[in-house]
Design a protein that fits this description.
Blueprint lengths: L2 H7 L2 E6 L5 H15 L5 E4 L8 H14 L2 E7 L5 H13 L4 E5 L17 H12 L4 E6 L10 H13 L4 E4 L5 H13 L6 E5 L5 H12 L5 H9 L19 H27 L4 E5 L5 H10 L6
Parallel strand pairs: 1-2, 1-8, 2-3, 3-4, 4-5, 5-6, 6-7, 7-8
The protein binds flavin-adenine dinucleotide.
Pathway: One-carbon metabolism; tetrahydrofolate interconversion
Catalytic activity: (6S)-5-methyl-5,6,7,8-tetrahydrofolate + NAD(+) = (6R)-5,10-methylene-5,6,7,8-tetrahydrofolate + NADH + H(+)
Organism: Hominisplanchenecus faecis
Amino acid sequence: MKLSEKMKEKQLLSFELFPPKTEKGMANLPGTIEHLMEFKPEYISCTYGAGGGNVGANREVCQMIKKAGSIPVTHFTVIKNTKEGIREQLDQYLEEGVDHMLALRGDFPMGETSTMGDFDYATDLVKFVRDQYGDKFEIAVAGSPEGHISCRSLEADIAVLKQKQDNGADYIMTQLCWDMEQFKYWLDAIRKAGVTMPVDVGVMPILDQAATINMALSRNGCVMDRELSRLISRHWLFPNPFAAKDAEGKPFDLFYDKKIAEFKEEGIEYTIRQIDTYRALGVEGIHLYALNKWKDVSEIINRSGLRTLV
Ligand code: FAD
């Protein structure tokens, strides 16, 4: 059964991983996936470096997911990709038993103003995959509850989402959104616009100050609600959370340890409350960005009651 059909029957739990950059990270990942499998995720997605730089590692991670007994969903972007190159890669995914994808445009390479490939938008990719491969792939697409950072307007972005559906997409994976009033508005607006695809909500656990600020502001322009802003302020790592740890991730200052632990504890509480709200809104799936960590993710799942989804 397709994931999008399952989502219509019950709220699904899934995870997102990224291909580690080091050999050690790669060697540790199967262990992490094994722990995450305890929660019987319906699928695990794996990010894809725009430009295809890490496609080898992405394919390896997809195989790890498959071997562990879950469905791999590969993210895929059109950045620097030609039609021929896309076909070659997608043929290879199919040969390797990967037939679920998140069809994305991707972010423009630094300093560029185009995709530098044959397609300009995710809508083109969805159409191309359906034309070339029929129903061989189940296709997810991105949705931005606050509007994509470069969209003309929220309305224009919602029209694009409808176009993705009309071109053959199956379900939506959302960009993170901490502004719940905005999320409710968007959910209502996409349904009014005729978007019937299930909504699988992307949730980034709040575990680290710098990572949270980075994710919100470096590319996505996400609003941090008052509660999250206060949480970051109360535990601010003076003078600068971006320079709080050394290259191995060890805090520079002994006093940081306590602050970091307190921030994480409150961040987990915040994440759980956010999940409660999403679930109460009747979204079709919770897609946790696992950030290649299993301990914190397990804590969130156990404490939130998400276990009842499995
Ligand atoms: P699109 O839907 O193509 O939209 C891009 C912009 O163009 C929007 O402003 C939209 O309104 C506008 N637009 C779209 N179609 C049209 C059209 N036909 N005519 C006019 N305007 C149009 N990036 C990665 O590189 N790797 C990843 O693994 C990755 N994973 C992600 C996972 C999720 C769940 C999400 C939400 C994003 C992810 N991204 C990833 C980031 C994503 O690639 C960027 O947000 C990118 O800038 C936009 O991708 P998109 O598919 O939303 O683009």
